Amino acid sequence: MAEQENRNIEQQQDIKQILQVRRDKLKALQDAGMNPFAITKYNVTHHAQEIKDRFDAMEGQTVSIAGRLMSKRGMGKVSFCDLQDKSGRIQIYARRDEMDQEEYNRFRKYDIGDIVGVEGTIFRTEKGEMSVRAKSITLLSKSLQPLPEKFHGLTDKEIRYRQRYVDLIVNPESKRNFEIRSKFVAYLRRYLDNMGFMEVETPVLSPIAGGANARPFITHHNAQDIDMYLRIATELHLKRLIVGGMERVYEVGRIFRNEGMDTKHNPEFTTCELYQAYTNLDGMMDILEGILSGAAQEILGTYKVNWLGHDIDLTPAWKRQTMADAVMEVTGADFMAIEGDDAAAVELAKSVGVDMDGVDKKWGNALYETFDQKVEDTLIQPTFITMYPVEVSPLAKRSPTDPYLTERYEMFICGCEMGNAFSELNDPIDQYQRFKAQAEKRANGDEEADMMDEDFVLALEYGMPPTGGLGFGIDRCSMMLCGTDSIRDVILFPTMKPLSD
User: The pTM is what?
Assistant: First the structure.
């Protein structure tokens, strides 16, 4: 223990010394009238990857590039360093007799992590390395903190999430994840725009938290002296627009839910919700399948991805199965044979090992709990599970052939829910009764139950056409495309517990 403490003290002293040396270098530059923080602009003509991609055509040309010094070698008459910009890295070759003497000497004192601008010509070294032969090197920003040690990098995930700026500098896979995420959002927007959807924005603050079963964050509006909620879904506002005649709308937006955190959940996250008039559940299945399979093909160049230890095939024509059939396939329990019999359904669920404690003893809840506890984790390949019970689907339209079920689906991959869609309920009387049932649950202590939204019921009374609606998480879809097992790997700044003093 004492030995470890001594090592920690030595490391702290080393870091303290490094920090002081860097500040001393900065002061010396400032005293000499060369403050790097005073520079406001540098003319960048090319980037590292562009030079590599077009090397044969550009060899011998003069370029001006800028980026961060990631390594330095040589430091005699000839120096080498790796410069990293947004596109990647390229080697910089600097000779003392090819640069201003004072400028070269200053360059020798620059630290790894410093940001520089380099003007020079493109050439290939004797060892065949594509490089820029420096004519001038300008310090654009001084790094006062050392980067993580070269061979180990920033491996502590807790620190990577807290100091994303360092993570992005030293871990290429992190940058790749966020590039994939950005491309995915761009693809889905293009996909929906090409289908005639219009992107809209709806309120983040609302006097009512509706559209999902979730606990909201509460804030206070001082001027009106009322409590307001950060939205838990965009659904109810978007469906008001369908009533208004927009017919095809979508929103990519931030959602806030006051819930626990784990590898699949963050209190604030991003969803895409879309609504299309004159279509139903089948249309929503086609859209989600098209977005995810098309994005994989365009971004990754393949329908095959590996996620959570499984090889996933996103080739279109995904499996579609009712919840009751999926339950019977996995457990052998036939809930349709006892449809509507609450007591028998509860006993059937218990007979296959389902915990019904604390669950409202209804047929639909027994079916759903059996699916949730026994079936969901078995759904590895893309699967649409359809026909959800009314009890767990307060905003979905009842099946025209079965009053106990709704036209709703959730899509699962690797046991994770990836999308939720309805043939939307447009009967204002039915909607009012379902809101009323949810409000009673809330009054009895269920903080995740829906609130009564009388204005939304009023909107439905003006008439909403048959409509299909779909919502899916940008973060979880990005996790799949990136092949990562934590939502924090695809959220630039995930929610973190504050550090103690």
Answer: 0.92
